[in-house]
Design a protein that fits this description.
With 274 residues, this protein is an alpha+beta fold. It has seven helices and ten strands. The protein is 26% helix and 23% strand.
Length: 274
Amino acid sequence: MPELPEVEVVCQGLGPLVRTRKILSVSFSNKKLRKPFPRAKMYSRVEGSFILGVERRAKYIMLRLTGKSVMLFHLGMTGKIGLFDRDSPRRAHDHLRFLLDNGKEMRFNDVRRFGCVEVYSENELRENDPFAGMGPEPFAEDFSADYLLDKARGKRVPVKSFLMDNRVVVGLGNIYANETLFAACTHPHTPVNRLSRLDWQRIVTKGRQILEKAIAMGGSTISDYENVSGEAGYFQVELAVYGRQGQPCPRCGQPVVRSVLAGRATFCCPVCQK
């Protein structure tokens, strides 16, 4: 599933290509995504609108439109957004197409159809905020060691599960939670109430460094992720523990161990991450 760096890379690539463009028409496949297409809103609020900007919140891509409307995309597990010539061959699983005023089509492709697209007015977004209850962004000032220490007080949940909880912090999925904890020398099964302020500071600092590097390298293509130009990311070559069961730890050489935590594959070095 695309995580924060992959979604950020899509936003950064998409913004310059579609900003100020007018959406002339919207076309749908006959397949459903995780949620039904908001067809009426697409016709009334999206067709004929100009794209003012592209932003990211958590793992959502937000297109701000004229008419004070916002279109939200969630990529699910296999969702992709790309820009194509109008007459270029369509791919299987192109479920949503937006014809732009420069002759290009913005296409939403989703093989497994776990993604979704929603349309809100700015008032609806305020009244029914889909981000209500979510924690801060990893790069936000209020995501700090003191914040995490306070949030973890009295809890015994494993630290990896804690970091993957959107109510604590948004966007840290399985790949980057594993990598952050390795970089911070913290075992993923450690109960959060056993971590000190210094432990949390390492997690914040290392987590940001890893996310920044992943964004700069175009994200991680573990399965079929690609950016808006159809290119794969290459941060996967930098992964220290994720998906490396049995391979030597890059620090000490001991084999990386795989376990399952809250139903998710979890990787760590049993020596470096006591």
